[in-house]
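EI: anyone free to look at a 427-residue chain?
SC: sure, send it
EI:
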Amino acid sequence: MRALVAVHKGRQERLRDGLERGGLEGRDLAFAFELVYGVARRERLLDAVLLGFAHRGLPKDPTLMAALRLGVYQLLFVAGMPEHAAVGETVALVRGNRGFANAILRSVARAVRDRPAREDDGRNELPLGPSRALELAAPLPEDEVARLAVLHSLPEWLARRISEQHGIEGLRRTAAAASATPPIFLRPAASAEPATRARELEAAGVSVAEAEGGRLLRWVDGASPFSSPSFAAGHFVVQDPTALAAAAAVPCGPGDRVVDLCAAPGTKTTLLAERVAPAGRVHAFDPNERRRGQIVENVVRLRLEETVEVLDSVEGLPPADCVLADVPCSNTGVLGRRVEVRARLTPATFEELPRLQRSILEQAVAMTRPGGHVVYSTCSIDREENEAVVQAAQRAAEGLQLVESERTLPEAGVRDGGYFAVLRLPG
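SC: here you go
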């Protein structure tokens, strides 16, 4: 319950730490993560469902609300969860108002139908899979943007912003990804072929499948890859296809010197290090001391200490061949992964962040040698954070050439969203 209240308040790091210190292991820990993050991804929809059955409105107590959301989530979205378990165990968590909690959860359970949702009734029924549906007590909005915002638990202003920039189809894709559990991709280290790493993981009970033409492995089922000997030996890091594309776009090679700004947790850093080794060097920086520790952890685990230098300042570095500026952003391309984001975003975010992003990109340009390259990347799909920032940098630096750029909308179960642009300095 404390974890659910924490994520509701946007404290994702504390949430993760708390779950991992809670004494759970293996499948129990994975199920706890599914419940907490699933409730966070679906919070607005869960509240809309509850409100339809709560004739006197929803309670103000955040702990009671967390319990109700947990119960409804299990009733609707946890495959094979018995009704009596979802209701009974949730009510047992409640100290007061148990009668109210029991009544509203049983009302929701009675509205679940063991049949497909009617295709022509998208406002009054909620599909729960190919053979289950929920009859809603209150209809969803008629306007499609507003309806998608509720269905996928987005602030309506954000849904409208996405629709204005990427069209209704872009909103459908982004919204669906925001409420889906994101897949976990593993990037094998350069020391062996992906097929070899796949066999190692399979031997440890980890089921994986090749992805992105063999460049990545997707965790499908079985034991956690992070408990495997292969992980401990530094044979892979976690990296989504979109993040991999941004790192791969840095035009560096053996012997080059690269600066990775805002480098934590270091997954892009390790790919750059593999590409410039053995004679090259990657200078990895992040302004957050705790997050710099994550870079060190990944670098040491992959045995790349000879190639990577983790810095607490980039002052005094000579001009680099390439600089990667993977800047802080709104994370609108990874809403399903960064579950706390939608609770803290406001329209002002898209005025404030571009100022910081422009500053970091200008710093990256200043750190690059004539003729060198800067790669600007975000986990955002917003044009103000992406194309507009790059255009501002080009106006500020004469002769700065846009070599290529790519914006990727998220796709549920397939990839995150994001953006990168490769810029070349004159000279």
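EI: The CA atoms of residues 245 and 420 lie 8 Å apart.
SC: 👍
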